[in-house]
Design a protein that fits this description.
The complex is a heterodimer of chains A (567) and B (172).
Chain A: H1 10-47, E1 51-59, E2 64-74, E3 77-92, H2 94-98, E4 102-117, H3 134-139, H4 146-152, H5 156-181, H6 185-201, H7 206-269, H8 276-303, E5 335-346, E6 349-358, H9 362-365, E7 369-378, E8 381-391, E9 399-410, E10 414-417, E11 424-440, E12 444-459, H10 464-470, E13 476-484, E14 489-495, H11 498-532, H12 537-564
Parallel strand pairs in A: 4-5
Antiparallel strand pairs in A: 1-2, 2-3, 3-4, 5-6, 6-7, 7-8, 8-9, 9-11, 10-11, 11-12, 12-13, 13-14
Helix pairs in contact in A: 4-11, 5-7, 5-11, 5-12, 6-7, 6-12, 7-11, 7-12, 10-11
Chain B: H1 2-12, H2 17-32, H3 39-49, H4 54-83, H5 89-96, H6 99-103, H7 109-146, H8 148-155, H9 157-168
Helix pairs in contact in B: 1-4, 2-3, 2-4, 2-7, 4-7
Chain lengths: 567, 172
């Protein structure tokens, strides 16, 4: 062994070549599966539901990738694909791949279809469906259960009934005590005895007569004083009783007033003061904004990923570390699709468009994402155009813009208000739609929506009143102003049908609310009767008032007997 | 277990301590840094071409990979401190604009921190390893060989047959 041979193992060089060749071959054999699995895992993480890739084909010379049959599950409907793409083919810059930069010069996205059925569920976890907002149900004029309405209400009538019952009991106790202190039958009997004694005194001498006159005067004074006390008590009794009777009378009228108050408040809370069309469009537009917001939030990290900066805080996941970035001579994002040609297959025909500057790091690229799709001469639609920009070049002040134009959409049989007691259908008509919306600062929504119906024939099967109102309506214009935030959008809608339908809707609402009011009134009256029981001011008037009247009458009669000499 | 047995046999054999120590030092790089990093291809090439002990390299790489997982937060801190050092910003910026630096992923805190740690330990570990192996053979191995039970075991027919078989397979 020579000197070099003591340190070098030449067979090791061959072993290295064989080993590296074997590893390369293994990688080439497995890379397509790895790419497929990687896309599925990353897509599933991003969307929150399964993303399936039929196949992947990575080529090195030239650098390119083809993916086939990509299915993106709709997270809200796991048996439906939100998007299904037949084929995605892209060419990449091979030299930049060595610098860990995936720069796609040209991408073709072919056969995009929306809302296609899935053979198996794409759910990755069972999330509870958010409860529908109450106003959706109320929009359909679904009236509440009267008992439930009464339970939830703070019923002042029932509280007043309790107070009246207590006051009547106190009133009765008080007057029973006062009556006990007034002259009773024994006192009347004593007066009669004194009269008899005086009559016998007339038969004596002159002295006896003079003494009797004095007695008569004293007797009259006593009787008058007692009679006055009884009359005063009777007056006070009737005055106090009148108050209680007034309260009782008010309670009799309370169910009607209370029922009206409750039903009026319900109608206000339910928004029944608005018109059907306003409610319908508001619900539709709010639904669109909510759906858009859901997808925007899911995709946001991939169109606006914060850059890893030198002073980034927080420990990274174990084994991953943190990539420190330095100024580049020719700055480029780690991932960039310069231009993607997309064809979308709709039931009405094909939409074609382009997406440019698709990157999670637009601030490095310095240019916003721009998309533009158009479709002409589609079945049932004259023209569709969707365009917009997602400008996140300045991460602190992002500004996104969306414009949608639909011309001449033949919307025969379109349910404007589907289901419910007052379904409203566009039996025939052509729709023009224009939407302009911006999202500033990542959340602040502003926009306008204009919808026009031409050659329209509207049908309202559920209500003759609404159907009559719609007769002769050939054109409908609706405008909506969008505001608020993406999470909590505000939609202000007005249509030229408002005046027409307001009266019809009010009539329908009035009839239904009257039924509710009568029901509430009846149940409330029953409750009041049960609550008051035998507490009745009229009963007291009979029991105590008659007693006082009889007593006063008795005293007056005795006094008259004294004056006439006939006890 | 088989790998550990082979490692012990290497330690107990006449293999040059430098071959074992160098294998250990190369394993420091491949074990402490992320295994699939491109620089580990160079380490593999050196391991196969230089006359270092392969059993030691494999066993040490496996053991150190486990230790590296525990030391990962430390490597991140070291890498971040070095990569954000004001004094070196010009150097890193120049290197960042080269393909090999990006391909090696040396702008990653864990890759940089673990590689620097491994390189810093490389030379001390070589000499320390050498010294420990020599001392082991001089003291521990000699003491073990003198044990009565070991002498009985080595004199047994079973051990003689095993030695003969091992020699036939060319084991060290």
């Amino acid at each position: 062994m020579n000197r070099l041979g003591r340190f070098i193992r030449w067979r090791g060089l061959a072993a290295f070549v064989v080993l590296v060749t074997a590893l390369t071959l293994g990688w080439l054999l497995l890379v397509d599966r790895m790419v497929k699995a990687g896309f599925e895992a990353a897509g599933t993480r991003a969307v929150g539901a399964r993303v399936d890739v039929g196949g992947a084909d990575l080529s090195l010379f030239p650098a390119g990738l083809t993916l086939t049959r990509i299915q993106v599950t709709d997270p809200d409907a796991p048996m439906t694909n939100a998007v299904e793409i037949a084929r995605v083919a892209m060419t990449m810059d091979g030299a930049l791949l060595l610098r860990r930069k995936v720069i796609v010069e040209e991408m073709a996205v072919e056969g995009v279809r929306l809302h296609t059925p899935r053979s198996r569920s794409g759910a990755i976890h069972k999330a509870p469906k958010p409860a529908r907002e109450a106003d959706h149900a109320l929009f359909g004029l679904a009236l509440p259960d009267p008992d439930a309405l009464l339970r939830e209400a703070r019923l002042e009538a029932l509280q007043a009934a309790d107070a009246l019952k207590a006051d009547l009991a106190a009133f009765r106790a008080s007057w029973e005590k006062q009556i006990a202190e007034l002259p009773d039958d024994d006192d009347l009997k004593a007066y009669r005895e004194r009269i008899k004694a005086l009559q016998q005194a007339r038969k004596g001498g002159i002295g006896a007569v003079l003494g009797a006159v004095k007695e008569v005067k004293a007797l009259q004074d006593d009787i008058r004083a007692d009679a006055k006390a009884v009359r005063d008590a009777r007056q006070r009794f009737h005055a106090e009783l009148a108050q209680l009777q007034a309260r009782r009378k008010a309670l009799q009228d309370a169910p009607a007033a209370e029922a009206r108050r409750l039903v009026t408040r319900f109608a206000h809370d339910a928004g029944l003061e608005g018109t059907l069309t306003t409610l319908a469009f508001t619900e539709r537009v709010s639904g669109w904004v909510t759906t858009t917001h859901g997808w925007y939030q899911r995709l946001r990290p991939y169109i606006d990923r914060a850059r890893a900066v030198h002073d980034a805080d927080g420990a990274p996941a174990r084994g991953t570390g943190q990539d420190i970035r330095f100024p580049e001579t020719h700055p480029l994002p780690d991932l960039l699709v310069r231009r993607a040609s997309v064809s979308v297959q709709l039931a009405a025909g094909d939409l074609a468009g382009t997406v440019t500057n698709l990157t999670p790091d637009p601030s490095t690229l310095g240019r916003p994402l721009v998309f533009r799709f158009t479709g002409d001469r589609l079945r049932g639609i004259d023209r569709v155009a969707v365009e917009g920009t997602l400008d996140h070049v300045r991460p602190d002040a992002p500004r996104d813009r969306l414009a949608i134009t639909v011309n001449g959409y033949r919307a025969d049989g379109l349910a404007l208000v589907p289901g419910g007691p007052l379904p409203l259908t566009l039996a025939r008509g052509r729709v023009d739609l224009a939407v302009h919306a911006t999202v500033a600062g990542g959340d602040r929504l502003a926009g306008r929506l204009a919808l026009g119906l031409r050659d329209a024939r509207l049908e309202a099967e559920g209500s003759p009143a609404v159907a009559r109102a719609l007769q002769g309506v050939k054109a409908v214009n609706a405008q909506a102003t969008l505001g608020g935030t993406l999470a909590h959008p505000t939609v202000d809608v007005s249509t030229n049908l408002d005046d027409l339908l307001r009266a019809a809707a009010a009539e329908v609402a009035r009839q239904r609310l009257e039924t509710l009011e009568a029901d509430v009134r009846q149940r409330l009256a029953q409750r009041l009767r049960e609550r008051l029981g035998d507490a009745d001011p009229d009963g007291l008037a009979k029991a105590i008032g008659d007693h006082l009247a009889a007593r006063a009458g008795g005293l007056d009669e005795i006094l008259a007997g004294v004056l006439t000499g006939r006890p | 277990m088989r790998l550990l047995a082979r490692l012990l046999r290497v330690l107990n054999s006449e293999t040059d301590p430098a071959q074992i120590s160098l294998a250990l030092c190369l394993a420091l790089i491949s074990g402490l840094t992320p295994l699939l990093s491109p620089h580990n291809l160079v380490v593999l090439l050196l391991t196969l071409v230089l006359r270092v002990n392969l059993s030691t390299f494999i066993a040490a790489t496996l053991a150190l990979s486990g230790i590296a997982y525990l030391l990962d937060p430390l490597f991140h801190l070291i890498g971040r401190a070095v990569l954000t050092l004001d004094l070196l910003q010009g150097t890193w910026t120049a290197l960042y604009n080269t393909t090999w630096f990006r391909l090696a992923h040396l702008n990653n805190t864990v890759v940089m921190g673990s590689l620097l740690s491994a390189l810093a330990l490389f030379v001390p570990a070589f000499f320390l390893g050498n010294a420990l192996i020599v001392r082991y053979r001089l003291h521990v191995l000699a003491w073990v060989q003198r044990l009565h039970v070991v002498r009985l075991l080595k004199a047994s027919r079973l051990y003689q047959a095993y030695r003969a078989a091992a020699n036939l397979r060319g084991a060290p």
